[in-house]
């Protein structure tokens, strides 16, 4: 008599082990998120979505930019992060510092941050909530999602509306002229790094005497 099992394709033990390992890792990741030890503000707690052109900064870069923002905003200062969620997450980890922060972001996954999250689409640069008053932020940190002049120009409208004056822009080195034209910012010596290497050289630009040189 034929063996009933013959028709069932068998996975090799190697494939099976790899698969089990993958599921286990996934469960652990999810488990970490729900356990109390999970830090919802740590970079990578919300994973990059390449379709939205998202690339998170390395831990060191995010910390350096967050510290720069806190220092520049001053005591009780207000900081806006425009399309720069990894800096926002680092700012939230700065315990005991006296400042407030908002995150303007297209990706609604960041709405887990509650009232500090503001849905933002650079195609509608001034479509902002009424309680976001003009020139109410001591510093605006922005990282436009795309390396195009259109994206920079529209994001620049938002930045100029929000800031009292100080701007910290992170974008490609190729955008240097446009950054100067639309925002009056100059390239810093500090070179931001991402948690994954990007093909495009990335730089920071400011319009004030910063600690990034």
From TrEMBL:
Which reactions appear under catalytic activity for this entry?
L-lysyl-[protein] + 3 S-adenosyl-L-methionine = N(6),N(6),N(6)-trimethyl-L-lysyl-[protein] + 3 S-adenosyl-L-homocysteine + 3 H(+)
The record's InterPro entries line, in alphabetical order, gives: DNA_methylase_N6_adenine_CS (IPR002052), Efm5/EEF1AKMT1 (IPR019369), Mlase_EEF1AKMT1/ZCCHC4 (IPR041370), SAM-dependent_MTases_sf (IPR029063)
Species of the source:
Falcunculus frontatus
Gene symbol here is Eef1akmt1
- According to the lineage, what is the superkingdom? Eukaryota
Any one GO MF annotation of this record: nucleic acid binding
Q: Where are the transmembrane segments?
A: none
* BP GO annotations: methylation
Q: What is its main location?
A: cytoplasm
Where would you find this protein in the cell? Cytoplasm
Q: Name one Pfam family in it.
A: N6-adenineMlase
User: Sorted alphabetically, which keywords does the UniProt record give?
Assistant: Cytoplasm, Methyltransferase, Transferase
Q: Name one GO cellular component term.
A: cytoplasm
HAMAP family recorded: Methyltr_EFM5 (MF_03187)
* Protein name stated in the entry: EFMT1 methyltransferase
């Amino acid at each position: 008599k034929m063996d009933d099992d013959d028709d069932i394709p068998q996975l090799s033990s190697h494939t099976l082990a790899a698969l089990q390992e993958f599921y286990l890792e996934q469960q652990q990741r999810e488990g970490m998120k729900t356990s109390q030890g999970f830090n919802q503000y740590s970079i990578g707690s919300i994973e990059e979505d390449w379709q939205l052109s998202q690339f998170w900064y390395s831990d060191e870069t995010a910390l350096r930019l967050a510290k720069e923002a806190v220092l520049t905003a001053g005591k009780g200062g207000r900081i806006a992060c425009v399309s720069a969620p990894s800096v926002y997450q680092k700012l939230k980890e700065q315990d005991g510092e006296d400042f407030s922060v908002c995150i303007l972001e297209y990706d609604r996954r960041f709405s887990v941050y509650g009232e500090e999250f503001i849905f933002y689409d650079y195609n509608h640069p001034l479509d902002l909530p009424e309680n976001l008053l003009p020139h109410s932020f001591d510093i605006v940190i922005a990282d436009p999602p795309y390396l195009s002049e259109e994206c920079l120009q529209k994001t620049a409208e938002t930045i100029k509306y929000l800031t009292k004056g100080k701007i910290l822009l992170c974008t490609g080195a190729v955008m240097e002229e446009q950054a100067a034209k639309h925002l009056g910012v100059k390239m810093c010596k500090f070179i931001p790094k991402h948690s994954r290497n990007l093909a495009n050289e990335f730089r920071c630009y400011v319009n004030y005497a910063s600690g990034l040189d």
